[in-house]
Amino acid sequence: MSKQALRHRLHLQLEPAAWGYGLSPTNWVICILILLSFIGAILETEPNITQGEERVVRGLEVIFSVIFIIEYFVRAWVCVEDRRYRRPIVGRLRYLITPAALIDLVAVLPLLFGLLGSQSLMLRFIRLLRIARLAQFGRLSRSVRYLAAALVSRRYELSISAVLAATVIMFASIALYLAERDVQPEAFGSIPRAMWWAVITFTTVGYGDVYPVTQLGRLFGALSALASVALIAMPTGIMAAAFSDAMQRGRHELDDEPEDLATKKYEK
Fold it and tell me: How much is the mean pLDDT over the chain?
């Protein structure tokens, strides 16, 4: 097999858009390795699991990182198969600064930072972004575009609900500041301090670490809690309608379109 033919075959295996439909076998393996690396990073934070097995955990991480390093350089080598990066040097440099290539670069950084003794746990978690990058194909990619378009179509309603929520939170913070500042200066001694209570109340989390104790403060708190129910329901309803529109649009287009050649090729 010639060098050019090998590069072309590797490009088909590694580039989701070049494969045509679904994930290639190579990209399936890469996704599985990313998930295994992510699970390993999670288990590594539990001392009862990793105690006494530090060398094994470290060895597995090195293996994963080496595989991702090899994949990164292979992708940089085969990118010239894409007409956007035809020129060997300039094209590869352009590819290496694309968002997709930068995400791939993050996957190989944990080994370097780990060897330098730095904390690389967050970088290893960011590897999950690579699955989203590899999953930009076929029906999933189309569904994401439908969802994004539906959200964009509701951007004015979402903006209004966000502005309304911010306004009500601000008024609630001012009201609790005026009612509670003398009684609880540590919690409500300033509007920014009172804003913590307002945000926690309006998101219906309710930690209970800060709450009004005066009669006027409790009245404002009750009104704020009731208002938060409506403000939370408003963007939730808008998002639900956007999701429904995206699903309906995708279902209608999939029912209307003929079976494409890429699907037939993939099934064979």
Answer: 80
pLDDT for the residue 172: 92
CA-CA distance, 130 to 78, in Å (whole number)? 18
Residues 6+ apart with CB under 8 A from 162: 235
The rounded distance, in Å, linking the Cα atoms of 38 and 126 is 9
Alpha-carbon gap, residue 91 to 81, rounded angstroms: 10
Contacts of 62 (CB under 8 A, 6+ apart): 111, 114
Domains and CATH numbers, the chain: 3-136 (1.20.120), 151-267 (1.10.287.70)
- Of 6-10, 153-157, 181-185, 257-261, the one with minimum mean pLDDT is 257-261
What is the per-residue pLDDT across 99-143, written as a single tens digit (0 to 9) for each?
888 888 877 776 666 554 445 666 677 777 777 767 655 555 666
- Nearest by Cα to 214 from 191, 182, 189: 182
3-state SS, residue 121: helix
Q: Rounded CA gap, 44 and 110, in Å? A: 14
pTM to 2 decimals? 0.59
Nearest to 133 by CA among 220, 17, 230: 17
* Separation of alpha carbons 4 and 158, rounded Å: 51
Sign of the C-alpha dihedral computed for residues 55, 60, 63 and 66 taken in this order: negative
- Calculate the alpha carbon distances from 93 to 12, 70, 78, 90 in Å: 20, 17, 13, 5
**Per-residue pLDDT at 93 exceeds 80:** yes
